Amino acid sequence: MASDGSSNSSSIPDRQQIARQRLRIIAGHLQKPLDPSDGDISARECSAPDKQPGDTTTKSVPRRRQEVMKWNGWGYSDSRFHFNKKGQAEFTGKRYKLSGMIMPSLKEWFEGTFGANVQHKSFASAVPSPGAVKPPALNQAFVEGVQSTGVPFSSDAEDRVFRGHGHCLHEIFALREGRVGRVPDMVVWPNCHDDVVKIVELACKHNVCLIPYGGGTSVSSALECPLEETRSIVSLDTSQMNRILWIDEKNLTAHVEAGIVGQDLERLLGESGYCTGHEPDSMEFSSLGGWVATRASGMKKNIYGNIEDLLVHVRMVTPKGVMEKSCLVPRMSCGPDIHHFILGSEGTLGVVTEVTIKIRPVPEYQKYGSVVFPNFDMGVACLREVAKQRCAPASIRLVDNEQFQFGHALKPQVSSMFTSFLEGLKKFYITKFKGFDPQHLCVATLLFEGDREKVLQHEKQVYDIAAKFGGLAAGEDNGQRGYMLTFVIAYLRDLGMDHFVIGESFETSVPWDRVLDICRNVKERITRECKDKGVQFTPFSTCRVTQTYDAGACVYFYFAFNSRGLSDPVHVYEQVEHAARQEILANGGSLSHHHGVGKLRKAWMRETVSEVGLGMLRSVKEYVDPENIFGNGNLL
Amino acid sequence: MTSISLYSQRDPMLKKRDDFEDMLEERRSSSDLKYAFKCYTPVLYKGMPPCKTTVLKSMVLHSDQLRYVINQVSKETGESAGAIQEEASAILEEMAHRLQLSTVRFFAFALTKAFKTLFRSIHVNEEGLQRLQQAIQDHPVVLLPSHRSYMDFLLMSYILYTYDLALPVIAAGMDFMGMKFVGEMLRMSGAFFIRRSFGGDKLYWAVFSEYVKTMLRNGMAPVEFFLEGTRSRTCKSLTPKIGLLNIVMEPFLKGEVFDVSLVPVSISYERILEESLYARELLGVPKPKESTSGLFKARKVLSEDYGSIHVYFGHAVSVRTLSEGRVDRRQFNLQPRFIPKKPSEDTQGFVSAVAYRLVRSQEENMVLMPWVLLASLLLQAHYRGPLLEPHRPQGMTLEELTQRAVWLRGLVRGLGAFLHWPDDKPPSEVVSASLSLHQGLVRVSEGRVRLLLEEPAGGPGPASPEERLLGAAVAVLSCASYRNQVLHVFLRPALLATAVHTASSGKKEEVFDTFSFLRNVLANEFILCPGAAVQDFEEACQQLVQSGALQASQQQLTATDRGEPTLAFLTAMLEPFLQGYQVVCRYLCEEASESLTEKLFVPAVRNFTVKLLLAGNLRYCEALSSDLQKNALAALLRLGAVRRVNGGEQVTLKVDRMLLNTLEDTLGGKVPSQKAVLARL
Known about the structure:
Radius of gyration of chain B: 26 Å
Distance between the termini of chain B: 19 Å
Structural class of chain B: alpha/beta
Number of strands of chain A: 21
Oligomer: heterodimer
Helix content of chain A: 25-40%
Number of helices of chain A: 21
Radius of gyration of chain A: 24 Å
Strand content of chain B: 5-15%
Number of strands of chain B: 16
Structural class of chain A: alpha+beta
Largest sheet of chain A: 7 strands, antiparallel
């Protein structure tokens, strides 16, 4: 086991390693004094003797997030795309594989796709407009109560602004213009479950509104403060509850505080040779509690399952008290599963404080791969067959032609003549020799995990199926770049917004027989709506099938357009997104596969779960939280 | 409610119409053979390559939809799925088109020859064709031409071939297939054949609908069919059939294609080839069975002048746009889409509303020749003639006709009709040109223009009064078929004029009641969109107030003196129909026996009408038209005044005499359309 563990680290992509390195350095400055719960962690030390001392406290997220992260854009302050003086796209910083690299073809793609010009700039304002942040409306009794518990808190404007938004386009767009809406009046940083219990009690006593805050990566307006809320709003930031409390190797479970963000969880478990395998695209920043509260899904769910499959036990603090099961069992038949009241509750019932989650030994071997198909239809047919035979790799995704070209535009400068020659040769083989139309071909990206031998076997099986659908293996490189795209896409959105291009992603789940229809119809609807709303240049409208299930798939859409010349781009954008969602529902897709409902999509909840279904959810809310202490207004 | 707003979505573009080009002009000056062998490379949907019919058939036979129905039928009948599969395959063989370019080229050659002798010109709006070309590339297209003649679908394909557009696949009635050689020729030029009735036959329906939908889904070819279901013998648009329209909308409603474009096409003939054939058919001379020899006998038509044809390709209507907010497409979410499902009531209402809208836009884009105005005037004059001598028409003087025609031209234009009146020529010239083209119907003698009544067939001895009457009726109905072409322009104002005339007071409410009563009774006769009474009423009010015939205040609608000629003309337009309906009511009240079968209804009413006409109790021999009689029956069935009783082999008709009496009196203006009557209807 231990020797396996050491060989692991070399097979994990160096992108992550570099990122870790950087994080360690930065986090070093932010170390907190040791806290009492450190004792618990000693249990883990037995199981992972090779871990480096001091690592336990290198966490990615400080209390003052603004020290490392952008206040009005995605991710780390040091990492951003920009067009340099030569007009070439460049990614700054040192955290990612792309960091410090130049992407020579991005500018051409960008200008060609959006009809944009990199000379046209619409940069964000550096700070909120003066007076944009209203002074906090504090509930004095509550503040005093918190003070007496010793839980850290703040009503500093920056802290509050940071917690008043997620990453929806309209939220970021407003921030970039220096506009700030209603934000929480105060932020509290509980350190452990007991702190949360105290805060919730105080909130109930003094009738303040609590909004739980995890990683802040919501894309459903879930973190927006309801405008009609008249009480003092307190943001309950779980980011400091980020310890692994114990690891149980016999049962392969870990008990973890819910504020831990994905990358820390995987890194800390990795030190003991384990992982959860839960890797949503936002895993750098999103938190365990957030995953539970939104019913998150990870890229490698084919092996590890989605969050609901990973969950063994949850503790949630509600106004009525603490809700949890009495045992740590794999399954039980004791009425409706109470976990399903918590999963997807989106912070409307309480705060998830601790989670017992399944863990797996870190896989011995990882391999990327890719397959080129002559067209999207063939690709979908292949994915369907793979799902049917239940031999899906850890991840399998099919990107359409537009997204494939997008991915290509992100290729870093090729260092050697030889590589570029090889690239040319490959392209020639596929388009000329095999007769694939470059305007129609599409790519499936693959990620295999497991024993080396099994991975190779598995790989062959998948490639054999692909061959039946006209698929050609197209190398590891294409695959890896595909996955990289999902981590940098949010950074790219900021780049687009620097040049009047605005965009967003959204997702759905759909039965297999409707996948092609929904992809075509939604993409075309977006194009048509944009045209109708006066968008001059054809929008970028693209999709990928990102998850496969027995009975259907998850489809992810990107959509962006050049907003230059529009008087109210965000309004246009919202209308188009609304239309796209209508189209999804009309074509048999779900309201959401994993982003959640929040406030953005709650208008459709009734038709999604039926009147009675909605009534059930309401009655739970009414019982658990009659005073609407958890008043973020999501979902219902 | 939904349907109302659908009709109101009148495309403002429709009022501004495109210009026409004569497509025969080039044919007259160049080689027909070269034209038949011209390079033909139409653009296709999304640039897809054309698909072989064998591929299409196998797609249909192996579709989930068909497989499901085959299994279902197999379970129900106990026959093996294999046998039913065979049956399906046979149905498809019988049905499917076999488009061949060589046959199309043959037709192109032969039709050019024929068209050049028959017609002076074939006018086509080229802008419409350009729009169609774009539409074909964007979405699957359904072509919906009006149907007045056998010519229609050959003409359509001919035009599309000439303009290098994708050739349509056309739904044709099975009766064509009876014509041995010609049937196969038509099949090879893109026709597919469907049985006239297959209501209960699940398998037939499945094969048929899957065949049509497969073509649309894959954008293999534009699908063409006639919304009216059959040729209109009266030249009035027929109430649309929605079966096929349902099928072609389904791929969109089920999300299988992004959109479907519906393109209404209006074909108007200055002179219809089947003119007197139709009149005879309506009078009860049975329609000759379509046969190849019959077609050749029709060769005598080749020597005559049939004037010009106008074909107007309307704007493509997007099913997606139409259905926005009216159809909930999620209704298909909870079942696999291959399971045939009866469309929801909403959807059916929507499809029917679309069908009406399309027929109306066919009407609106129908080019009207000056002759239709003359026919209307002559017919009215004829009806004013002496009661007992319909065969000795009085006619009107040429000057009067010209003068009235010029007056009517103004009225018609004011009502937004698409009138093709050559303004560069003096009216008298236009009138006499029209009259000479239709010399089979009218004669000018002693300065008077009269309907040319057919001499009874030269039997032994002098013709009986009944024979003479039928002879006159052929001429009247032929003439009426031209008047009917302009009816849609006058319909709403005429209903209003009649309502103003009969309503007991000028109160707007009462006029509206009468209006909607008339509208309701005549809904099987004319294209009146269900549920659009208020809108039609307002439209008519606006038109008549604008033309100065009516004065409207908040509560009152009153006729103006100035408007008298207009109102009289309009009421006279509707009168033959109202009288005809009264005759049907009277027959059912007075003469119908308990055992009247549906089959015997038309001959019985005809006999009754003949008696009335001969006795001088009726002047409108249009009441002899079986079309009118059938429409009246359909209306009475709808209104509940007559019931169908299924008695073994025969369907008998049961009559509600009370209600019929009231209806008859109300139609005759003897009884105001009381609230009570309305409530019962």
